[in-house]
Amino acid sequence: MSQNTDFIPFAFPSLDSREEEAVLRVMRSGWLTTGTEALEFEKEFAAYVGSPRTLAVSSATAGLHLAYEAVGVGPGTRIVTSPYTFTATAEAARYLGAEVAFADVGDDGYNIDPSAVEAAVSSPGDRIASVVPVHIAGRPCDMTSILAIAKEAGAAVVEDAAHAFPVSTADGEGKRAFAGTIGDIGVYSFYANKTITTGEGGMVAVRDPVMAKRMSTMRLHGMDREAWDRYTAKRAAWRYAIVDAGYKYNMTDLAAAIGRVQLRKAADFLAKRQRIAAAYDSAFGGLDFITLRSPSSDDALYLYMIRIVPERLSIGRDEYIEELAARGIGTSVHFIPLHVMPYWSSRYGLKPGDFPKALSTFERTISLPIFPDMTDTQIERVIEAVAGIGKEKSLPRGRGLPESVGTVATGTVAGSSHGR
Ligand SMILES: Cc1ncc(COP(=O)(O)O)c(C=O)c1O
Q1: Of all helices (H) and strands (E), which one includes residue 193?
Q2: Ligand 1 binding pocket includes 37 (Cβ within 6 Å)
Q3: How many CB atoms lie within 10 A of CB 245?
Q4: Are residues 251 and 277 in the same domain?
Q5: CB–CB of 170/144 below 8 Å?
Q6: Does the pLDDT at position 234 exceed 70?
Q7: 3-class SS shares of the chain: helix, strand, coil, % to 5
Q8: Is 165 in the same domain as 180?
Q9: Which of the residues 43, 151, 175, 194 is marked catalytic?
Q10: In a domain, 6, yes or no
């Protein structure tokens, strides 16, 4: 697939003749919807991450909906999650009539803070049915602490692993495991810009066979062929029983065939992302107008985020993005926190300063291009543009606020401890 060489997109899928052949194979087979490809994809993904059970779904949003339903999220319950996420994490709880309690991110500015989770689970209100850590940008949350807090609260843990494939971390039992397989349920996304893609799609990893069975039934209209067996000894192939009002969340074989090829490339994709991140780290490490997330080997590197230091610059984050666009560099911002979104702020009466760390990150952060097929020239162009803009717009030392003070308006202290 060819790219426009002048503009460097924020993300670009890595697809070649192997995915094309896989799709053709499915098209020629005459079986387009869920079938053997989806089943094989589930088995191969389960083997990859070491999960006892997986379900291929039409999106991570669908997977979260199924997962919440399976762990008992519903009217009269709440989930606890971070405001620093995409709305899908929280909205799926609202589909089920549950409420959302937000807990701020920690000092790294991105992942949910276990002590904020602890405060949220002890806050007065409806029972907490699930704690939902989001592994932002593919860097796993502190699962050991989160599992302990959730256990104490009697809540299930549903990992939003939309960004977190493939990456392993401490599993809370002294071992390492893939992010997404550590909680009760984990949900991965294969949306077009994710670390592996099926265009739209997702995968659910689940430990408990009863939850797996429930999700499998609800994934396809509440259809249960085993339930039919209970009523009739002889079952015709077309017989099924509807046991609940389910959803239509299955993955097509067309998508699964692409996913199987992408899965085989996942380690190579990660190595390529690591190479780009290493180039960025070494180029940006010494610049005083941006801070970086401290490097970690536990990182799927779905995103590479820089944070500008407003005290050192004559322009703000938005102008920085415009300057990058003018130099042909595509970027994004992860995330506009949910508590400043009209729906979430009005539903829970939230103010921007309620989650100061998430807000502070949002105001400073820029996601740079990091996709496997980036050329050396493209990497170099991003580096030159980011560094060049910052140098051009740098304030002379002493003109800005003291270095350790962040946004006065929100009362936060940004510091630079998580930068390098
Ligand atoms: C953190 C997070 N959770 C869930 C989703 C939803 O994924 P999907 O688009 O596969 O439904 C996204 C999508 O980008 C996301 O970033």
Answers
A1: none
A2: no
A3: 8
A4: no
A5: yes
A6: no
A7: 40, 15, 40
A8: yes
A9: 194
A10: no
Same domain membership, residue 243 and residue 275: no
User: Which atom number of ligand 1 is nearest to the Cα of residue 62?
Assistant: 11
For residue 86, how many other CB atoms are within 10 A of its CB? 20
Residue 419 domain-assigned?
A: no
Over residues 132-142, mean pLDDT: 98
Does one domain contain both 183 and 82? yes
Question: Which domain, by its residues, includes 59?
Answer: 17-261
Give the global pTM: 0.93
CATH of the domain at 298: 3.90.1150.10
CATH no. for residue 172? Answer: 3.40.640.10
Give a yes or no: residue 420 inside a domain: no
Across the beta sheet with 127-132, the strand order is 53-57, 202-206, 185-189, 156-160, 127-132, 77-81, 99-102
- Model confidence over 43-64: pLDDT tens digits? 999 999 999 999 999 999 999 9
Q: Mutate which of 66, 105, 189 to test ligand 1's pocket (most atoms within 8 Å of Cβ)?
A: 189
Q: Into how many domains does the chain fold?
A: 2
**Which residue has its alpha carbon closest to ligand 1 atom 16?**
86
- The yes-or-no answer on residue 194 being catalytic is yes
Are 255 and 271 in the same domain? no
Give the count of beta carbons closer than 10 Å to the beta carbon of residue 328. 16
Q: Which residues pair with 368 in a beta bridge?
A: 304
pLDDT tens digits for range 331-365: 999 999 999 999 999 999 999 999 999 999 999 99
Domain contains 8:
no
How far, in Å, CA of 322 to CA of 330, rounded?
10
Count CA atoms within 13 Å of residue 221 on its CB side.
6
Q: Is residue 236 pLDDT above 90, yes or no? A: no
Claim to verify: residue 291 and residue 194 sit in the same structural domain: no
